Amino acid sequence: MNFDYNTTRSHLILSEYGRNVQNMVKYICELPTIEERNKYAQAVIDLMGFLQPHLRDVADFKHKLWDHLHIISGYQIDVDSPYPKPLIENAYIKPEPLAYPQQRITYKHYGKTVENLIEKAMREENPEYKKVMVQGIANFMKMAYVTWNKDNVSDDTIIKDLKYLSGGLLSLDEGVNLAKVEFRAPNPRQSNNNNNNRGRSNNNNNNGKNRQNNNNNNNRRPNNNNKPKY
């Protein structure tokens, strides 16, 4: 008995479409006339779009499907494609590596965005608008602080960090209260009380059902007074 293993088969070029699609494309390449190849190629394109519905969200997804058709055929299929045929040389072009940002963040729990906002507020010339910006930045700093620290933070800490990050150029008015933000951990007592209440309600329901069943059983008992005497 001969077994057909994947290791003995030809290389699967695009595994997301499966081996059947690859065999169809191979069959199309062997057809003698261009009319037949165009007809069957369009059918395979429709099948590929059905197998990969997420490509419909991609801009110009039909172009992507036709490119995949050429790739599956090893760039050998001869059909009238509505798009330019992809070049095999482009498959070996590596993109330029992205440079990792080397910017230093003073307080990582605030992030680089806060520093950018502070720099923008320092350049603001309108005093009223600048005051509103500083207030919003301080509120955001308090929210970011609580996100990464479970303990509540005082307004004095935020004001101190704001003054340090701005080099002493930005400050809040005295007596200003920042937005109330706090970390709330789940209360185990409350969850236990909820579980106890659920258990009590279930017991009450069971007791009510038992009483009702007992009453029904009592009503079903035969009346011995009507039993004939011999």
Which features does this protein show?
230 residues, single chain, mainly alpha, 7 helices
Contiguous helical run count: 7
Q: Structural class from helices and strands? A: mainly alpha
The rough form would be described as: elongated
Question: Could you estimate the helical fraction of the residues in percent?
Answer: 40-55%
Proportion of residues in β-strands? under 5%
What is the number of E strands? 0
Q: Output the radius of gyration.
A: 37 Å
* Biggest sheet descriptor: none
Q: Compute the average pLDDT.
A: 80
Q: Which series of helices and strands comes N to C?
A: HHHHHHH
Task: Kindly describe this structure.
The chain has helices spanning 18-29, 34-51, 61-72, 111-123, 127-148, 155-165, 188-220. With 230 residues, the chain is an all-alpha fold. It is elongated and about 85 Å long.
In summary, what is this structure?
By secondary structure, this protein is an all-alpha fold. About 55% of the residues lie in helices and about 0% in strands.
What order do the helices and strands come in, and which of them pair?
Elements: H1 18-29, H2 34-51, H3 61-72, H4 111-123, H5 127-148, H6 155-165, H7 188-220
